[in-house]
Specification:
The complex is a heterodimer.
Chain A lengths: L1 H26 L7 H19 L2 H25 L4 H20 L4 E2 L13 H19 L1 H11 L1 H6 L4 H27 L2 E2 L7 H11 L4 H19 L1 H4 L6 H19 L2 H7 L16
Chain B lengths: L1 H16 L12 E12 L2 E12 L4 E5 L5 H8 L7 E6 L2 E3 L4 H6 L2 E4 L11 H6 L11 H15 L14 H14 L4 E5 L7 H16 L3 E6 L3 H7 L2 E6 L2 E7 L5 H9 L17 E11 L5 E11 L3 E5 L6 H9 L4 E8 L2 E2 L5 H7 L1 E4 L14 H6 L9 E2 L2 E2 L1 H14 L16 H13 L5 E5 L7 H16 L3 E6 L2 H7 L2 E6 L2 E2 L3 E2 L5 H8 L12
Parallel strand pairs in B: 3-8, 3-9, 6-7, 7-8, 13-20, 13-21, 16-19, 19-20
Antiparallel strand pairs in B: 1-2, 1-4, 4-5, 9-10, 11-12, 11-14, 14-15, 17-18, 21-22, 21-23
The chains are: A mainly alpha, B alpha/beta.
Chain lengths: 292, 536
């Protein structure tokens, strides 16, 4: 049981960090549906780096860097070129899926490094996740930078008139977002489940994406959502632990995704929006073209 | 090359004298001067050698029709456009604005007509957004103190922690004014300051403007219509026509008539002849109509009224009192909560929008760009939108474009729509011409009930006059008209009956010719006058 709880927290941490990244991007108005792709890149390249150099540190750094780069790429398509953000995000996912399979397959198998030591019986990343959430919450709601990010995501024209560079702010956010996602991927492949296998991130990026909507763009609620999905995921791995013989594990495996689907459907209804108010960044998904 | 050099020069000069450049000027001294401003766009010279100046403590109105070059001049003064020729001087020193930020830093503030505010954020967040001294970690209480001090100075009252979407139009404008003042504006450019405001709010605004001018701020309102406001508050008026300054005079030497003549270039009749025609049978009858708003509360509350043949019922009210929901319910665009709607005896309560069009309802929406037209469609296609369902124009689902084109050409001619042809996209038309086109395609159907929502909002004097006359013509053609407007003058001059609307209820139904304006204005603000016997 204790094992189950710890694993749930570990999974939740990964959801939290990836979703935090997506949340930052979305608050600035940039939707990146390619979270899964960025995580795959981070996970695979982090894994390869760590396994070849023997250094966890290098693995994480590279994962963060590649995440940032992919964020930059997404930014280039959606900010500079003003393209469709969904198309660009899907492209990143497909690219990540294909390329990491190709690059990673020679390294299939366990990492072959000693496990990262735990802190008070928990993964150190759990504490990192909490800290990052607190920081993101503070920056978004209490700082000038946060106000600028939120403004750019709500109404870029107003922000620009107030003397804020929409382009710079959005780039800052997508790159940071990518770094978070890359890091989340590396935590997955270096700590949570240090074995490389085909498509091993298993759709976690998509759950993280859904979590952002689920959280109504609030980092604190996001933690709650992550905990829910993290535990659900663990239940789906070993359903007999909690509820023996209730359903096949394969059906359990679909539960997080089914909930995601239902959640997203619910959130898109008028009923939900009138009940909870318009919390979605107004300019989410819209390219901004300077007037003039 | 030349441009670049002056720009760089201006930039460095501006940097040296930045901030405080305008602070020590005495009342009456020239704050800003623009000399020979010329701005060309492909095909038009929007500003042609314009000279303009503002003194401290002065209210200097800029008047002009749509397309007269007002907006261009305003954008140049605020740094959004760079002039092709000419120079702006601040406190006697030449400056070049590369962006609004340069203008803001030199003490120019802008109050936009279409509010540049973020509805989801609080008032204080909107005010400090982009402020250089906001600090890395926001110190909201300090900012609030500072803004409150400004409020006290000019006698404004505003809840700084409220979210902007909760505010009325007048309060939103106040937020923009405060934002500009908080950034140290000494010159306040106001774009159509009184549009979308109620009479009561307009009074407040005029008081505020005067209070600000008292403390030596220069105020530059840009106004298309509402000449009485110009006459009441401004010290000087500059009138623009076709990109040129046609006159710059002291307001005390001007009259409403003389200004209108300068603006339009010909005599303008201010009074639309209100012809009374014999009251016919009721066309529209509404019983106990209730409608919910998008947010789910009751916006139209048990409303009952009727409009007879050849009558204009003017619904006067501050926006957000249920007008939109009422209009949409009548046009068949919004589900109703309860009640009954009858058109010439035919129950249309649950008829859809198309059936209503076919039954003789004509609807002219308030938002001509988003609801009234499709910008990327040409004029023929836009006209087809009210005709596609007519046997005469479509056979077995195939549109007869030849006929629709003929119709469009006729309408464009008859309604005096200024356009190079019927094949241009609708979004290339100016607001006035687009409204004329929409009016044409609706009125040409000879509807029995015309629903018009804010028909002249944002239109210039000439177009306004035209639209109003067409509505009166429709009435003379024995249609009944439901006119929704925030402009009390419009309501009073067009309607036979006035129904002030407040929180989804009519405060009364009064004959327009025997009811004093002030009574309607008060009732719009929710004051019941029946008890005092002031209203019938």
């Amino acid at each position: 049981m204790q094992e189950f709880l710890i694993r749930s927290l570990d999974a939740s941490t990964i959801f939290t960090i990836a979703a935090l990244g997506e949340l930052i991007g979305q608050r600035s108005g940039i939707l990146n549906v390619g979270v899964e792709g960025v995580m795959l890149f981070g996970a695979t390249l982090g894994f390869i780096t760590a396994t070849t150099t023997g250094s966890y540190m290098l693995g994480f750094l590279l994962a963060i860097a590649i995440g940032g780069l992919l964020g930059l790429l997404h930014g280039f398509f959606s900010i500079t070129l003003g393209g469709d953000q969904v198309v660009s995000g899907m492209g990143i996912w497909i690219l990540g899926f294909g390329l990491t399979t190709y690059i990673g397959s020679p390294f299939a198998g366990p990492l072959g490094l000693p496990r990262i030591p735990s802190v008070f019986g928990l993964s150190p990343f759990f504490f990192l996740g909490i800290a990052l959430t607190a920081i993101v919450w503070f920056v978004l709601s209490r700082t000038n930078l946060g106000l600028r990010i939120r403004s750019v995501g709500e109404n870029p024209v107003v922000a620009e008139v107030s003397g804020i560079s929409v382009t710079k702010t959005r780039y800052l956010c997508v790159v940071t977002a990518g770094m978070f996602m890359g890091l989340a991927g590396a935590i997955f492949s270096l700590d949570y489940n240090p074995v490389w296998a085909y498509n091993f991130v298993m759709g976690w990026g998509f759950i993280a994406l859904a979590l952002v909507f689920f959280s109504m763009w609030n980092p604190i609620i996001l933690i709650g959502g992550s905990l829910l999905f993290g535990s659900l995921w663990q239940v789906s791995l070993n359903p007999q632990l909690l509820l023996p013989d209730l359903m096949s594990r394969y059906i359990w495996r679909t539960v997080p995704f089914t909930i995601t689907l239902v959640m997203l459907l619910l959130m898109s209804t008028r009923w939900f929006r009138t009940k909870w108010g318009a919390t979605k960044p107004e300019a989410l998904g819209q390219a901004y073209v300077k007037e003039g | 090359m030349q441009q670049e050099q002056t720009n760089n020069g201006g930039r460095s000069r501006a940097n040296q004298t930045r901030k405080g450049m305008l602070t020590n000027l005495q009342r009456g001294e020239t704050l800003l001067e623009a000399r020979g401003i010329t701005k060309r766009f492909p095909g038009v010279t929007a500003n042609d050698a314009i000279d303009f100046s503002i003194r401290a403590g002065e209210i200097h109105a800029v008047l002009g029709e749509n397309g007269a070059g007002k907006t261009t001049l305003m954008k140049i003064l605020f740094g959004q456009y760079q002039p092709d020729e000419g120079q702006i001087f601040i406190a006697g020193q030449p400056v070049d604005f590369k962006s609004p930020l340069d203008a803001i830093e030199l003490g120019i503030g802008m109050v936009h007509q279409h509010r540049k505010l973020i509805p989801a954020h609080t008032v204080i967040e909107n005010i400090i957004l982009g402020h250089p001294n906001a600090g890395a970690v926001l110190n909201l209480s300090r900012a609030e103190d500072e803004v409150n001090r400004l409020c006290e100075k000019y006698d404004f009252s505003l809840d700084l922690r409220a979210k902007v979407w909760q505010l009325s139009e007048g309060e939103k404008q106040l937020v923009e004014i405060l934002k500009a003042l908080y950034r140290g504006a000494e010159i306040l450019i106001m774009d159509e300051p009184s549009s979308a405001l109620t009479p009561v709010e307009t009074e407040k605004l005029l008081d505020s403007i005067q209070a600000m001018a008292e403390s030596d701020l220069a105020i530059v309102p840009f106004i298309t219509h509402k000449l009485p406001i110009v006459l009441r508050i401004s010290d000087r008026v500059t009138v623009l026509r076709r990109g040129k300054v046609v006159s710059c005079i002291d307001t005390r030497d001007a009259t409403e008539k003389s200004l209108a003549k300068e603006m339009v270039g010909r005599e303008v009749l201010f009074r639309v002849e209100r012809t009374k025609i014999e009251r016919g049978a009721p066309i529209l009858e509404v019983e106990n109509l209730s409608v919910r708003s998008d947010k789910g509360f009751i916006a139209v509350d048990q409303l009952s009224f009727s409009i007879h043949e050849g009558e204009i019922l003017g619904v006067a009210g501050i926006s957000g009192n249920g007008q939109r929901e009422l209009v949409e319910a009548l046009a068949g665009l919004r589900k109703i909560e309860g009640g009954k709607i009858t058109l010439e005896g035919q129950d249309i309560t649950y008829a859809n929008a198309l059936h209503r069009w076919q039954a003789g309802v004509g609807y002219i929406p308030a938002d001509r760009i988003a609801m009234g037209s499709i910008g990327d469609f040409n004029l023929v296609e836009n006209t087809a939108m009210n005709y596609y369902f007519d046997e005469a124009f479509s056979k077995r689902g195939i549109l007869d474009f030849k006929q629709i084109r003929e119709l469009t050409t006729e309408l464009v001619e008859e309604y005096d729509v200024a356009t190079p042809g019927v094949d241009v996209k609708a979004r290339t038309l100016s607001g006035g011409n687009l409204q004329k086109l929409i009016l044409a395609r609706v009125l040409s159907r000879k509807p029995r009930l015309v629903i018009v929502d804010l028909p002249t909002q944002g239109l210039d004097v000439g177009a306004t006059e035209f639209v109003r006359n067409k509505l009166v013509e429709a009435k003379q053609g024995r249609a009944s008209v439901l006119l929704i407007s925030e402009d009390l003058d419009e309501i009073m001059s067009l309607s036979d009956w006035v129904a002030p609307i407040y929180e989804g209820r009519f405060m009364g139904k009064l004959p327009a010719d025997s009811t004093p304006r002030e009574v309607v204005g008060a009732m719009m603000a929710g004051i019941e006058l029946d008890k005092q016997g002031a209203a019938t």
